[in-house]
User: Fold these one by one.
Assistant:
Number 1:
Amino acid sequence: GAVVSQHPSWVICKSGTSVKIECRSLDFQATTMFWYRQFPKQSLMLMATSNEGSKATYEQGVEKDKFLINHASLTLSTLTVTSAHPEDSSFYICSAREIQGGSQYFGPGTRLLVL
Amino acid sequence: QQPVQSPQAVILREGEDAVINCSSSKALYSVHWYRQKHGEAPVFLMILLKGGEQKGHEKISASFNEKKQQSSLYLTASQLSYSGTYFCGTDDSGGSNYKLTFGKGTLLTVNP
């Protein structure tokens, strides 16, 4: 199956700092990538849809100035959590959709802990 | 719209079968099934696109009904490795508005 990588896998940071998470599709091109957030024992909540070369589309209630998304190429999308606060602590997972076939694959996720 | 998954949880002994259902009030463009183990990201199992479709192999398979509003995941002769939370993700917009909305998940526990 297709492989999506995500780095870093763990981040611990102080309140007020910014954190950048990278997501790469390793063996396929993805014009569209997705960023999800998951709290313990809950479902996956879509934060935003990232399109290569254009602005991301954010879901209702997600602050675009706080969660900056850049989709620089067909294989790379980044999520920057700006001025992180403890309530931003969560499991962030990126996902990429194959152009052919439409299957959507997840990266391994990034656990963010803001102190 | 969030799809409805049932059951919320199921406990099996190794070798037993399970069925997990996913339903929507709207016709869907696609249904995607994933398994997530504790502490890990979801792993893709399969995608269903056509009404009446059945897919998979003998151990793990899925169906999509003709009206494209309901899908079921079938786990046959379960193994310990099948334990985890199963999510269905549904797309009810299609095209350039594609996005998956996930159900609340079904926690499957397989015991020896």
Note: The first strand of chain A starts at residue 4 and ends at 7.
Number 2:
Amino acid sequence: GENVEQHPSTLSVQEGDSAVIKCTYSDSASNYFPWYKQELGKRPQLIIDIRSNVGEKKDQRIAVTLNKTAKHFSLHITETQPEDSAVYFCAASTTGNQFYFGTGTSLTVIP
Amino acid sequence: ETGVTQTPRHLVMGMTNKKSLKCEQHLGHNAMYWYKQSAKKPLELMFVYSLEERVENNSVPSRFSPECPNSSHLFLHLHTLQPEDSALYLCASSQGSQGNSPLHFGNGTRLTVT
């Protein structure tokens, strides 16, 4: 089955700096890669996703890049704000409703 | 407000109890999921229902029994659980059966087994 690894497990940045979280996957058949943000005590919420026919996608301060050859994808958050502090999860999915999640990155933005 | 509603939010049960978790989605999706979230671990897929048929059972112990009476409702029946089953149980839904549409999660049920 698919194996998704996520790094780092914790990340602290100063407000206004950029944050980068990286994930690798093992199954070359994976074709959909969502990112979720989970604030303390709340449900995971989709923040951005990318499909395998695209190399990069951007939504305001958030961007995701995908390298299919190397089987890795990354989340980039620019101009970080304290409200960006949360746990971020990457996931990879093939057909058939199977989503495999990384172990999460706890991001702290220091004011 | 979330389109996926889970009840109860918190549950404490003894190892000999029987309880059920409920999930309802108001998004018109055709697939529903149960995930287990434990500290320091990835989200673990437990069950997937697509068009009310179970399409995935990820080697989950039989003390967890899912039920999907229709495309909007999903239950997780619990009996004779173990303390290590204490976790956050998340329900999710998605549209489509190709695995390339996002999951929408509920707020979860925080389960404590004593």
Note: Chain A touches chain B through 26 residues (CB under 8 Å).
Number 3:
Amino acid sequence: NAGVTQTPKFRILKIGQSMTLQCAQDMNHNYMYWYRQDPGMGLKLIYYSVGAGITDKGEVPNGYNVSRSTTEDFPLRLELAAPSQTSVYFCASSYKTGTEAFFGQGTRLTVV
Amino acid sequence: AQSVTQPDIHITVSEGASLELRCNYSYGATPYLFWYVQSPGQGLQLLLKYFSGDTLVQGIKGFEAEFKRSQSSFNLRKPSVHWSDAAEYFCAVDNYGQNFVFGPGTRLSVLP
């Protein structure tokens, strides 16, 4: 049972570099989410998607982009990395409204 | 906007003692509520959820939570804490079926 798979687990970026955080789920979930977790701040929603081809901004979208071309995949793109994007990123998915979210193991990103 | 507050940033209890973690939410409709647990370096795991019906819900690992509409609360309880319960605990609310809003988390330490 793979569930939600995130890659990579760790990454160090230099300021101004770009990268894509990968997220895939094998549960045929319609809803997918990207959150970032900073100490003492809980999880903040970056982007979410309610189905293939549909994405929407969350609370903290600046500096990020997403796409959802398939039900399974929801990559998060960081353009021009900044130190403020140092964080732990979690991808999650859920089946439908009112059901729980399943989380990946996270990607720890450091921007130096 | 929906919000979730967890008034206690850090709680320390002795092994075998009872535990109550507080959660208050701000939501305009009947809420779907969740408690998640995060062990160090791991993703979030669902402990329990409330959708409707009985206001006392049972979860995994011996946890339970009580929904009190009049107090806008969904407190998590466990009668006897084990050392393995040391982790961070997050309360969350379904945000009108679009995504989830999380509280800032409560870190639980357990003394031997």
Note: Chain A touches chain B at residues 4, 31, 33, 35, 40-43, 45, 48, 50, 56, 58, 90, 92, 97-98, 100-106 (CB under 8 Å).
